[in-house]
Amino acid sequence: MKTYTDLDIFHAVVDAGTFTGAARQLGITHSAISKRIAHLEQRLGAQLLIRSTRRMRLSEAGQLYASETRELQERLRNVEQEIVEGSGALKGRIRLSCSNALGKLQVMPLLMRFMERYPEVIVDLTLTDAVVDLVHEGMDLAIRSTAKPEPGLIARRLATNPRVICASPEYLARHGTPRSVADLAEHVSLILNLPGGFNAWGLTSLPEMRCGFLSNSLETLHAACLGGRGVACLPYYLIADDLASGRLISLLEDIRGDGADTSIFLVRPEASILPRRVRLLMDALIAGFDAEEAQRT
């Protein structure tokens, strides 16, 4: 049976909101939770939790104790995990975020090799084209395509990420092929309905285009583009086979701006102690992307 510190129990109560919820979470009795909290309050000489028949809330001292010890608890957990990992098989959970297409096409094969090598490590992958707040969501790592990583994160560049303005031959047969940026005003755009600079297409000034389709997923923009619904700006890794086969045609290659290409970054929150399992996954991802870059050059 796992032994819990008073700090573990206190934060379990804070997170669960009730003694009953904390007891269920930790797998110990309600009375054991109550006794340990009482012991902690006696030791500190202050009431941390104000309890009534209907609700529980933190006292002023409890709020201070909770805020000041949260990071300490996480650091202690990481140190203990580091010792466990260093003395035996690598294990534990790694939470990772990545965009849908990039995750499926480039990241997932690398994760499969990592999990095969370290079968007791649980990789918890979230695929979304929205930008995830790593700290708020409790993520260990994220892989992002961007021109510049957001401040407050530690970033490691993995690869270049060329983007291509493109359309299907069927669409171009109906609407004509744009030869200049100004010509795009006569065409239909397929764009992401997410905030950020992705829809600027790397052009110094993108004319107003009639919007034919919006989505929060690059994969659905890709499908719409293949279906002849309009012009899109898509990552090269997503459409390389389509360009080679002629299913999509690259447009305006000679006039793309400096922001046309982005880079793929491995980012993580700042942490004083990085668990060994996370460090090894980072190494595996860096090596995997380096190998793919070498094959393309």
From TrEMBL:
Annotated ranges, domain HTH lysR-type: 1-59
InterPro entries xrefs: LysR-type_TF_proteobact-type, LysR_HTH_N, LysR_subst-bd, WH-like_DNA-bd_sf, WH_DNA-bd_sf
The entry's keywords: DNA-binding, Transcription, Transcription regulation
Coiled coil spans: none
One Pfam family of this chain: LysR_substrate
Family to which the UniProt record says this protein belongs: Belongs to the LysR transcriptional regulatory family.
Protein name: LysR family transcriptional regulator
Taxonomic source organism: Cobetia marina (Deleya marina)
